[in-house]
Amino acid sequence: MITDIFELRPRYGEVDQMGYVYHANYVTYCHQARNELLRKLGMDEIKLENNHIILPVISFEINYRKPAHFDELITVKTTIRKVPKVRFSFEFEIKNEQNTLLSIAKSTVVFVDSKSRLPKNIPDFIENIFKTKFKSDIT
After folding, report:
1. Cβ atoms of residues 62 and 26 within 8 Å
2. Which of 74, 90, 86, 75 is closest to 35 using CA atoms?
3. Which residue, 19, 108, 120, 130, has most beta carbons within 10 Å?
C-alpha cells in the first residue's frame, strides 16, 4: 500500500454562498493530491506525456460528510492499495485541521496510449516503480 498526504487551503473563490467549499472543488483537490503522489513516485504528468501515456478518469465517486471552509487547512490522504494493470485506482480521505473527516472518494483512471487513444497495460517503467515500492513496504 502506498499513501501520501497533500495539504491545501481552499481559496475564497472556491466557497459557495453558504460559506462551504463548493462540492465540485473536492474533485479538483483529489486530482491535485493524485498528481502530487505520482510526482513523488517519479511519474509526473510531463514524464507520462513524454512516454505517450495519458490517464483519463473513468470513474469518480465521492461521499460528503462535513463541509470545508475558506482558508482552513485541509489534508487529502491518497492511497494506492495494489499495483495497477490497465486500471489504476486511488482512494482519498479529506480531513480538516481538527482531523474531522470531510469526505471520502475513489477514482479510477486507465493507462491509455496518447497516440492510438487505446487502453494499454501498465508501462514497464511504472510497473517497476510500483513493484519496488510495494516490495519495500513488505520488508
Report:
1. yes
2. 90
3. 130
Mean pLDDT of the chain: 93
> What three-state secondary structure class fits 62?
strand
What CATH code is carried by the domain that includes residue 75?
A: 3.10.129.10
Q: Cell 493507462: give the residue.
A: 111
How would residue 124 be classed by pLDDT, with cut points 50, 70 and 90?
Answer: very high
pLDDT at position 139: 43
CB atoms within 10 A of CB 104: 16
Mean pLDDT of 3-16: 96
**Total domains present in the chain:** 1
Domain carrying residue 90: 2-138
Query: What 3-state DSSP class applies to 34?
Result: helix
* Residue 110, all three cell numbers: 486507465
